[in-house]
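Worked example 3. Consider a protein that binds zinc ion.
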Amino acid sequence: MFFSANDLLWLLLPLAAASGWLVARLEQKRRTRQSFDLPSAYFKGLNFLLNEQPDKAIEVFIRVLEVNSDTVETHLALGNLFRRRGEVERAIRIHQNLIARPTLDREQRSLALLELGQDYLKAGLLDRAENLFQELAEIRAHSEQALKLLLHIYQQEKEWEKAITVARKLARVSGRDMNSMIAHFYCELAELDYTHHNHASARERLKLALVADDKCVRASMLLGDIDAREGNYREAIGHWQRIEQQDIHYIGEVAERIAEGFRRMDNDQGLYDYFRVSLRRHGGVSLALTFADIINSREGAEAAEKFIVEWLRRAPNVHGLHKLLEINLVKAKDSARNDLLMLKGIIEELRTQHLGYACGECGFKGKSLHWLCPGCNHWNTIKPVREE
Ligand SMILES: [Zn+2]
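Given these inputs, the predicted complex is written out as structure tokens:
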């Protein structure tokens, strides 16, 4: 079989095409390698950043900037770095310069705005930060991040109405459940109303808090307080008792208030029955201690003592022991009294470790109940230690 010149040409054509393609590809590869030089320096800088060596990172980034100052990512990373180092003014300058460039695309511009907003936040220029985050939320660019930062600002500024609006938007955008937080914002507003003796408005807010989160203990507590202040003890007791279903850990916060409510209504039997039944339902230190006092004033010290001893057998605890000593001290004579006082002193020391409040999130400990943890800034994470 012989090939004609024509046949040969046809055979060689694909090969020629292929080799041309190969040359072109090699050329392209060489070129892309060249254009990757810049980002490789950028990644090197990033590496320094990740290894907590910001000084070396700055060096690298500045070198890159000299090569090509149009590198947006580098600008952003550098600005971020300056902000983290606390050099906020430099960060602001970098981000402002970036935004001023008309060549920026939409994504780059919104990213730079988000960074600039955080610079302002760190510099304490809250109004400017707020404006930028609002703009981002409106144009739906980085909305979730912008809304989170807005929420942070409004909480810091105690602008609770705005915080409620933003939290609702954030819930829609992120799919996160913000209801417990929203309920606290309503409670904050209600507390302000309450201190200004505007009970009607406070009640409205607290109802909205319970609509947002029907487990909001704080709203029930305050609704009870308002009713008690107005002499509506039956209603007050109703609100406080609801805490039993909302979160039993907090019942100790209102046990005394509930008892006082019954006493104000001269309803000794109601008082006794409620604590007897709810103690049987839940147990718990606070309910038992209050019930011991109720028995003491109703049936005398001996009956109260008997109740506490039985309780301590089932659940040994320092609070019960303390109460037992307290009751015994009243009837004790001179020398026995001194011994008991000494013992009570020791128990009291022990008891302080089991009093107060602690955050389940960060471990913060405090003597009073904070709804917003000062340690980790979470709502609703602090609970009474006594019930643990
Ligand atoms: Zn905490």
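Take a moment to read the result before moving on. Residues 359, 361-362, 364, 373, 375-376, 378, 381 surround zinc ion (CB under 6 Å). Residues 93 and 346 are 62 Å apart (CA to CA).
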